[in-house]
């Protein structure tokens, strides 16, 4: 019965379309050259001293590698974040006039992607600082941060806000602004919930290791997002999952 319920949920729009887009994102990431921007740069600075790492950073900022890094981040967002948008898109579709539905979705996505692209700059710079200055392996530090953030009430508070569905104006500039603002707000709360987990693929040097970490991270994000809102409190993630399964 539970399997039937899951299959029924997967068939409910817009999930089939979102799953298709997600799979497309993973296919693009798997193709040679589309997931190598950040790993290539990290390999360039791995094990180098401060001066050489600074030179590598200067090279990044003055070459097309920066474009490759941005493109890789965008494709990673498409692959990992698209399944999380079913409820917001469904809300936009139901609450918008028929002739405005696609515009509402596009404006929402514009706001959402803008926030995540800006967050990507911060996360990548933070990862680079870890590679250059950290005394510990970067992936170890990223994993410790992710586990620590998972235990905090602030993480759960951000997840709870991801379920927020605002009132939308029916037409005009007010409707456009509401959809754009909804995307930006949802993106901000999503960044708050997911930033530490998103460090994990960034902290992985080799391309295929990064892809495996990204897949595991994406599964965690989907499971978390589709849980109902819960009280924001300190928790141990593994024990919390066991507790939920036994109730």
Automatic annotation (TrEMBL):
The keyword Nucleus does not apply. Keywords: Membrane, Transmembrane, Transmembrane helix. The chain crosses the membrane at residues 59-81, 102-122, 128-149, 179-199, 205-223. This is DUF2182 domain-containing protein. Pfam families: PpoB2.
